[in-house]
Amino acid sequence: MAETADDVKALSFEAALEQLEQIVQKLESGRAPLAESIAIYERGEALKAHCEMLLKTAEARIEKITLSRDGKATGTEPLDAN
Description:
The chain has one domain (5-78). The protein has a two-stranded antiparallel sheet with strand order 1-2. 60% of the residues lie in helices and 13% in strands. It is α+β, with helices and mostly antiparallel strands. The protein contains 3 helices and 2 strands.
C-alpha cells in the first residue's frame, strides 16, 4: 500500500475496489498500528473518491434506446433525460 494517491488515478474500478475492500478488512480487524491505520484510511478515501468518479463517468456514458410506437429503435438519449 505504499502507492501514492496519484497512483490511484491509474487503477481500474475493479482494482481500486479490491484495494478498498482490503483496507476496510484491515481496519475492521483492529490489528494495524495507529500510524498505519491513518495511512491506509487516507488511501481508502482516495480509492473511494476514484471509484465514485469512475462510476459517475460510466453513468454519463449510458444511453437509453428510444423506440417508436411500433417498437422499432429510433435512436438514443441520455439515461436521465426527464
